[in-house]
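@channel sequence for tomorrow's demo:
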Amino acid sequence: MSELIDKINDAQRDLQKNEEDQGDYEEAENEAANDKDGTIGAPSKEVYEELQQQWEELDDRISELNRVKNEVDRLLARYKVFDKDNCFANIRFYMKQKDEKIGQIEKKAGVRKGYMSRLDKPDNTTDPSIQFVATAARMLDVSLDELLYGHPTEMSEAESIVRDYLRDLLEDTKAQKIKWFKERDGILDKLHNLYTDPEITHPLLFYDEHNLDSDGTPMLVRYGSLFYPDRLVDVDWNVYWANMPGMKNVVYLVPCVFEDDKEHKRFFEVYVTDDEGKATGVCNTRQVHPSIMVVFNELFKAAMASSENVFVDDGVKSIINQYRKNRANRGGGTND
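structure tokens (generated this afternoon):
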């Protein structure tokens, strides 16, 4: 952490020096402009442009270093509740799955051979370094949260399938192979009257059996939990959805709360649609294994970020590239 702070301080000093150089340039430019005799030459524009470019690069560098520092601070805060036995059990579990050797992880982390076995002795109360744990997570292709707080050895086959599915969604989201969208306001977070809004449809909207007209026909549709069909569940925040690559199926991440819950404890439900567009439940965070919850939390954050980023799929790229090619052939922006 101290090295990271030193890098931030160095970059900030460079930025301050750059700003001083830009100030000197502007002062020289003003002196030249006010020189009636013409004896003071104007400074080179190229110098100023180079200074501006350096400033932008330094500013970007500081932003990135601060982002890394904030992430390290977050990890250090979570590290205080570290369970060494669970972490080491997880490392062994994933090493077996990935056919990795502890010696390779130790070498990559820059620690002596036998590092983990020494720390694993009953009388050794020393925790492993963050660098060692982070290196293990990277080489075993799991998140740091999974390695620290997951319990994969206790999972059933079905739970493992769900966790791996959510992890695949997370990886595809980070690789920008999946684009997430925020559901339109007023779709899932309110009741819809079938008499005044008969065209409303959505895979997660169901007839409200608590509101029937005189002949027993449902009058309203609302969000209905497939996990808690006997309880009223409300959508509590933004719903995110995405098309699965190469398929016509859609996945939904739904923040929920029980309507009668006075403590307003939020939970999440995950659904996918089948080939006919009908919703099927994948998991509910009130009922899932802790390892699944760890992956889901990362996925939801990634989905939120994805929904706010510009995303251009291959079809749109092709159209844009063709337009730019035609424009270049026309000679820039001139019309034919």
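heads up for whoever presents: The chain has three domains: 2-79, 84-154, 180-314.
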